[in-house]
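Batch manifest, entry 17 of 40.
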Amino acid sequence: MDIPLPDPGGQPKSSRSYFQIESAMHDRVAPSAAKFSIPPPRTMGNVNWRGMWELYLKEVRRFWKVIFQTVAAPVITTLMFLLMMVFAFGRGSTQIVGFPFEDFLAPGLIVMTMIQNAFANTSSSILVSKVQGNIVDVLMPPLSAFELTIAWTLGGVTRGIVVGIACAISMLFFAHLHLYSVGMILFHAVAGCLFMSMVGVLVAVWADKFDHMAAVTNFVVTPLTFLSGTFYTVDRLPPWAQFLAHYNPFFYNIDGFRYGFLGHEGARPVTGIAVLIGVNVVMFACTYRMIKSGYKLKA
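Output type: structure tokens
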């Protein structure tokens, strides 16, 4: 098929085929089409920092979205503990290690709430994903076991720190928070939350249903925190109980955190620091190994 092409004067000139015109139009468009080339694969290096950061943000946004349940509720519960214990046992001029009872009690309650919420954050996040079947959304991206461990753990630490700050602010209206060593406060706050975050990851990976997690919470976590000097000094315990308390990492966490406020210790601060560093190293190795093996995650 030939298409006549008129000249400027209106007289028809020699015609070109339809296919020749189409080819010419294609040649004009081709250079612009080269701009839409396929991008090269993204290189991440030895650590997928972007992916780890996004998973961490996901964990933070998860508890921040329901902040009344995840932050305000623990604060109210902790205040109820403080008021109940003070009204029941600390009325008048009751003092412990030279401080009013409420001043002695406040640091222990703060760190107890912090570590419990760090545990709750990681354990509930992973177990809910397993039960709902969307844990694959976390396992399919190019995230190594190391990166998953860090992101999940830091998410729990962040919730514990946020809850601790909220508890400390609210307790200022009911007790005087002394300040002896900021470094000891920060170390034991972070170390305790790290420890319990990793315990939460281990429990969530192991558990098949919420009853399993509740059993660990009710029969392990809560008793160990309550029997670690939260409401008393361990020197009031019988000798055999004092002996057992010194094998409880929760005791060193609570005692060291209280030492940062009051300057009073039930054990040598250096010993407590060494114990917390040791248990965190062991827990990280166990957590990393369990996630890397895919135990109850990739089955």
